[in-house]
Amino acid sequence: MLRLFGNLNSSVLIIGCFHGDEPQGKYLIEKYLNKKTDTSLMFIPCLNEYGVEHNVRTNSNGVDLNRNFPTKNWELTEKDNFFGGNSPASEEETKFVIDVIEKHTPKIILTLHAPYKVVNYDGPAREISDKISKIIGYPVEENIGYPTPGSFGTWAGIERTIPTITLELDEEIDIKELEAPVFKIFEMLEKYE
């Protein structure tokens, strides 16, 4: 079931698990929420429960949620791991995120992905990306290096000008090694309230 956690009046939204085979976000968010119950941040710990349960990128309909947003560059593609759905915003999870953003109007959005070890950003997010980079030691990349039609970053960051950061975490190290730097990033974002 899709739910929001933390401070629902927050101006910072953090989303985990767009892709089910990238479970680091869910683990880190849940661990943080267990540690810090008075957070000023708003979280969606796991956007793609089906994907996490089955260790697959896509949701139960075989859709890559990070290609399903109603962007100007959305396109109908072949049904593979990057399939953006039969139409933009066709998926329950996508509609949920859109509704959350329209209702709560966050001023900064951070999504947790894996495995590229970069701080990727869309929209006016360079300054905050540089701060995140200094904490975790990953380079900042404005362009991820391949086309992403219908992506969340394009929809939220570029088309809505909400600073949107995609933190691509290292999947080759023990997840516990990511707790300290990611929690520092969350704590830094709490200051943006």
Can you describe this structure?
The chain is α/β, with parallel strands linked by helices and 193 residues long. The chain has one domain (5-190): 3-Layer(aba) Sandwich (Aminopeptidase). Helices cover 33% and strands 15% of the residues. It has helices spanning 24-35, 49-54, 92-104, 126-136, 152-158, 176-190, and strands spanning 5-6, 12-16, 42-44, 108-113, 118-122, 140-141, 164-168. Strands 1-3-2-4-7-5-6 form a seven-stranded mixed sheet. Strand 5, helix 4 and strand 6 form a beta-alpha-beta unit. Helix 4 (126-136) packs antiparallel against helix 6. It is globular, with a radius of gyration of 15 Å.
Keywords:
Aminopeptidase; 33% helix; 193 residues; alpha/beta; seven-stranded mixed β-sheet
Outline = globular
Specify the CATH architecture. Answer: 3-Layer(aba) Sandwich
Order of helices and strands: EEHEHHEEHEHEH
Number of domains: 1
Q: Total helix count?
A: 6
Structural class of the helix and strand makeup? Answer: alpha/beta
Helical coverage, percent range: 25-40%
Beta-strand portion reads 5-15%
Give the CATH class. Answer: Alpha Beta
What does the main sheet amount to?
7 strands, mixed
Question: What is the CA-atom radius of gyration, in angstroms?
Answer: 15 Å
- Supply the CATH superfamily name: Zn peptidases
CATH topology: Aminopeptidase
The N- to C-terminal Cα distance equals: 27 Å
**What is the strand arrangement across the widest sheet?**
1-3-2-4-7-5-6
Parts with pLDDT < 50 across at least 5 consecutive residues? none
Q: Calculate the mean pLDDT score and round it.
A: 96
Task: Find the count of extended strands (DSSP E, 2+ residues).
Answer: 7
